[in-house]
Amino acid sequence: MRWDVFCRVIDNWGDIGGCWRLSAQLAAGGDTVRLWIDDPAALAWMAPGGAEGVTVLRWSADTQWPSPGDVVIEGFGCELPAAFVRQMAERPSGAREPAWINLEYLSAEDYVGRSHRLISPQMAGPGAGLRKQFFYPGFMVDTGGLLREPDLLARQSKFDAIAWRAAHGLQIKDGERIVSLFCYEHAPLQALIDVLQSQPTLLAVTFGAASQLAIKTLGPNLRAGAVRAVLVPALPQPEFDHLLWSCDLNFVRGEDSLVRALWAGRPFIWQIYPQTDRVHANKLHAFNALYLEGGEPALTESYAILSNRWNGLSAGTARLPALAAWRSHAARWREQLLRQSDLATQLRALVTVTG
Questions:
Q1: CA 151 – CA 164 distance, rounded (Å)
Q2: Could you report the per-residue pLDDT of 78-103, keeping only the tens digit for each?
Q3: Which of 294, 303, 314, 355 has CB atoms 3.0–4.6 Å from 351's, for a disulfide?
Q4: What is the pLDDT, as a whole number, of residue 14?
């Protein structure tokens, strides 16, 4: 099939990261993809080698739109250009209507299962007569699943964490744990540094807001007591996986890195993207309730306190859950997710049936 995937970069890398992963996976399965992005600059470091079968095109008000493909993906409700929608509606006589999919944001809230695969007939505007279908990623069997490459676990099973850390200046000392940090600029890093003082810790700090925050909090020597930090340069997507696989604990932000942390099967804490009306709190608590279901009481209590503190939803003292119990819980949760068909496979099956 021929796919048109549309992405609008807001102010972070989650949208472009997710749309690129989807495009690359569809192309790896034999399809061709045009990835339309209003600002593709981040792909220079995120996917420097590109992907066979994926053509990246800049999307602007002056774009001369080609004929739509078999499937059109509206990434995360980015709203398709009216001129492109008009071409979808004014297809040649006898041509099949393109499958129009609104790929929504990831959530564990109850509405996701009810809303997944709902159809919205377009009654007016340039797309009058077309049908848009909603596709919700998720963690349960009544959702669209999560992005997962077919060879992901095989790659991880062959991965040499010690060699990778050595190649990236992240050698750990005796008795030291390693923690990755990928966060927004408002994260309460000093509070986390205080929590980490219980054991010698190497903090692997990712490119961007996290690095700036680490320098501001730890000073130019990047040290505070038992914690020392190393700044990690911008990493292509496969290398970001390697970072997560190399650490004892991962602090991740947004949705794309949350999914990668889940597949890493390691302990993690998620910093959710904040919204002014604080609906992000409901979204975070829905995920935490699902993730912690069936966990040991000591783990679930300390995890919830740390998660709320890291996300600015509570004050007070937090502590790390016991890593051994946390590792076992993370591994069990990954095994549960693996029983679910991945997002790209589900999406391809949906448009094959309904397109």
A1: 19
A2: 999 999 999 999 877 677 899 999 99
A3: 355
A4: 84
Q: Strand order in 119-121's β-sheet?
A: 54-58, 32-37, 2-7, 71-75, 99-103, 131-135, 119-121
* 160 secondary structure, DSSP code: -
Phi, psi at 90, each rounded to 5°: -95, 45
Catalytic residue IDs: 15, 255
Q: Given this model, what pLDDT does residue 11 score?
A: 67
CA distance 255 to 237: 14
How far is the C-alpha of 313 from the C-alpha of 355, rounded, in Å? 43
* Residue 92 DSSP label: P
Reported as half-sphere exposure (CB side, CA atoms, 13 A), residue 303 has a value of 28
228: β partners: 202, 223
CA–CA distance, 343 with 333 (Å, rounded to integer): 17
Question: What is residue 23's three-state secondary structure?
Answer: helix
| Chain centroid, CA 3 distance in Å | 21
> Which of the residues in the chain have pLDDT under 50?
none
Work out the number of other CB atoms within 10 angstroms of the CB of residue 244: 22
pTM above 0.85, yes or no: yes
How many Cβ atoms sit within 10 Å of the Cβ of residue 276?
A: 6
What tokens does 229 get? 């930090």
**For residue 160, what are its two tokens?**
């040499």
Question: Rounded to 10 degrees, what is the CA torsion of 148, 153, 156, 158?
Answer: -140
In Å, how far are 279, 280, 292 from 286, measured between CA atoms?
A: 11, 10, 10
Q: What pLDDT shows up at residue 354? A: 60
Write 284-292 long-range contacts (CB < 8 A, 24+): 284/311, 284/313, 286/107, 286/108, 286/109, 286/110, 287/107, 287/108, 287/139, 289/108, 290/108, 290/139, 290/140, 291/108, 291/333
d(CA 28, CA 22): 10
Give just the sign of the alpha carbon dihedral 317, 273, 105, 43.
Answer: negative
CB 184 within 8 A of CB 251: no
